Amino acid sequence: MKIKLFIFAMGLLMMAAINSCSPKSQQNPASGQTDNEGSETVNKTNDDGDFLIRVQDEKGKWGFIDKTGKEVIPCTWKDAKDFCEGQALVQDDNEKWGFIDKTGKEVIPCKWEDAKDFSEGLVSVMDTNGKYGFIDKTGKVVIPCTWQDAEDFSEGLARVMDTNGKYGFIDKTGKVVMPCTWEEAEDFSEGLALVIDANGKYGFVDETGKEVIPCKWIGAEDFSEGLAPVMGDNEKWGFIDKTGKVVIPCTWQDAEDFSEGLAMVEDAHDKCGFIDKTGKVVIPCQWRDIEEFSEGLARVQDGNDKWGFIDKTGKVVIPCQWQDAEDFSNGMGRVQDVANKKWGFIDKTGKVIIPCKWNHFYY
């Protein structure tokens, strides 16, 4: 479980990291970070439907294979990112960014200094002047590159940063619907966006910019399934609803978003488990580390630092025998072998379906 220290000073120091490392929006998102130079690396895509797996060959070039291991897009790119809304961000040998489709065709030429993920039909790109705007899937500029930074659209709005380093939101026409007045902001989720005020306190605004949940929390995360984790003045975590009412008291050492009806919590002994939306502990806090449920399973780490998976009853369905593991997606979970430290894929029975022969890739 990630330990969240929502302190204003840290928030300012990590502002660039927040903008560049989130799953949905990443600055230079596919920068090649591999365990060994020139080794083969793998990452599973997050696109819906048939998915491809991003790999790097022995020459350091990137391409894509399918779930059978067949190469469908040759390893010819200097860098690449996962498919999103049918297109994948790629970098050519001139270090310019563009997009390909699932046949490998370059549908948006590599001419941008930086680009992020397609979301709701648009993607943030950076021009040669270091400013951000948005293009559509044909490559047409629909919002001029005038912003210091710009993130993905979510629920019809995109957060942008002005030259003063303040955040606000624009709509898909480029109109400013919420002035850049916030020290930091996150994407809209379930109709509300997390914001940080000048005092470093966290609250939530609606799509009109109204502060519907006052900025009074030391820390907070996005709403998920109607609830949001918040940190109180006692530096403990609990949950609020969309009216700002505390529905689960701030008693936990740490807490994460609800996923599939359950939320991860950490007790005073640094052990992790799950609660339901009433705050009832449904899976006891006995694990060294855990992650959220995905496709009915959650990865857990035991006292020997090995990873496996449990179901929603807390039953171990895939033994803790892996050096590391990642969430299931499209029925596949990525796991790291203890002996050779290589990565492969298992199914929900724990059967290895792609052998552990790839180096891990952080993105």
Shape: flat
What is the CATH class name of one domain? Mainly Beta
Oligomer: single chain
Record the strand order, biggest sheet. 1-2-3-4
Using the coordinates shown, work out and report the CATH topology of one domain: Thrombin, subunit H
Instruction: Please tell me the CATH architecture of one domain by its name.
Output: Beta Barrel
Question: What number is the mean pLDDT?
Answer: 87
Instruction: Report the total helices.
Output: 2
Strand content: over 45%
Helix content estimate: under 10%
Q: Helix- and strand-based class?
A: mainly beta
Number of strand segments? 36
Distance between the termini: 18 Å
Question: Unreliable segments (pLDDT under 50, ≥5 consecutive)?
Answer: 1-40
Describe this structure in words.
A 4-stranded antiparallel sheet has the order 1-2-3-4, with no helix packed on it. It has a 4-stranded antiparallel sheet with strand order 5-6-7-8, with no helix packed on it. A 4-stranded antiparallel sheet has the order 9-10-11-12, with no helix packed on it. Residues 1-40 have low confidence and may be disordered. It is flat, with a radius of gyration of 21 Å. The chain has a domain at 288-363: Thrombin, subunit H. The protein is 4% helix and 50% strand. The chain has 363 residues and is mostly beta strands. The longest helix is centred in the first third of the chain and has 7 residues, at 15-21. Strand 10 and strand 11 form a beta hairpin.
